[in-house]
Write a structure and sequence with these properties.
single chain; TIM Barrel; eight-stranded parallel beta sheet; 10 helices; globular
Length: 276
């Protein structure tokens, strides 16, 4: 088990179980150095998005690294004001240009924009068939969004990336996705470090001589959740993924369940301001 450990997506593609998220990493030098240091540490999965405004730095760091492009799993996403069939295809072309790549490994619909996400996904299916994205999926989709999408989708999403951390464990989403062979990926996986002092996390951290962040990443890893903790600091990046030398017991995993409080840090997809 290592940072090279992968999960198999429903189209046969392999995705590294742990990656680096770069949301709010500043464009230019900050995101460039963050991706560079992560690759040096052995990360092989980088998650960005059109919205983040830092695709250029991500692409440049990958291009300048000693790691062959085909060994790095790159995700980006289409933002809400880019959705719709033609606009999505144009947005994807712009993302590729900024990344300086001729394909991405995973392309996601960032949010389920009402009245548009099915049309947007049709564009993703064409991008996938053209080989420009090795896999396609969605982000922030509730089960009812997925049900609606699956009515017309010709290519099943491989991933649903949602806010997921110990205080928001997303059981209903996970059960639906599991039933349909869609992997769940966690954004804000560390809960923005807001409750590292929680009694259960402190107890497990002491038990294994680990940090609360490491307990959380290990819990997600053992739960089969793909996770992309964000840090622009090399030591923190190293720390976040130092989770392969211990294993949570069944009792520990059950204790983690007790932290769930349905506590969101972001908007619920049904209450998001889509501006439509």
């Amino acid at each position: 088990m290592s940072l090279r450990t992968t999960r198999k997506l429903n189209n046969g593609t392999e995705i590294p179980a742990i990656g680096l998220g770069v949301y709010k990493a500043e464009a230019g030098e900050e995101v460039y150095q963050a991706v560079k240091s992560a690759l040096e540490l052995g990360y092989r999965h980088i998650d960005t998005a059109s919205l983040y405004g830092n695709e250029e730095g991500v692409g440049q760091a990958i291009k300048d690294s000693d790691v062959p492009r085909e060994e790095i799993f790159v995700t980006t996403k289409v933002w809400n004001d880019e959705q719709g069939y033609e606009k999505t295809k144009a947005a994807f072309t712009h993302s590729l240009e900024r990344l300086q790549m001729d394909y991405v490994d995973l392309y996601l619909v960032h949010w389920p924009v009402p009245g548009k996400f099915k049309e947007t996904y049709q564009a993703l299916e064409e991008i996938y068939r053209d080989g420009k994205a090795k896999a396609i999926g969605v982000s922030n989709f509730e089960p009812h969004h997925l049900e609606e999408l699956l009515e017309t989708a010709e290519v099943k999403p491989v991933v649903n990336q949602v806010e997921l951390h110990p205080q928001l464990q997303q059981q209903a989403v996970r059960e639906f996705c599991d039933k349909h062979n869609i992997l769940v990926e966690a954004w804000a996986p560390l809960g923005k470090a807001r409750y590292f002092d929680h009694e259960v996390l402190q107890k497990l951290a002491n038990k294994y001589n680990k940090k609360p962040s490491q307990i959380i990443v290990r819990w997600q890893y053992q739960s089969g959740i793909i996770t992309i903790p964000k840090s622009v600091h090399k030591e923190r990046q190293r720390e976040n993924v130092d989770i392969f030398d211990f294993e949570l017991t069944e009792q520990d995993m059950n204790a983690m369940k007790t932290i769930d409080a349905n506590n969101r840090l972001g908007a619920h997809p049904d209450e998001f301001d889509y501006g439509v």
